[in-house]
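As a representative case, the lines below give one protein's residues and fold tokens.
***
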Amino acid sequence: MTTKIAVSLPDDLVAAARQAVADGRAPSVSAFVANAIEEHGRYEQLAALLSEMAAEAGPPTEEDRRWARQTLGLP
């Protein structure tokens, strides 16, 4: 089920959504906005999980960070 709503967005965000549709990265502006909202929810869940992990195990050590950078191929 979907519900049609009206929202006000800054012009630059509307332009970005329309460009995504024009580029074929989204089927519609509505789909682009829905995806952005879903993605935001996933980031919030991830942030909560990382916060819980840090509370249980403490923050990552410098050794942990070095391992992660090496594993991901980052400088």
About this structure: The chain has one domain: 11-72. Residues 11-72 form one domain.
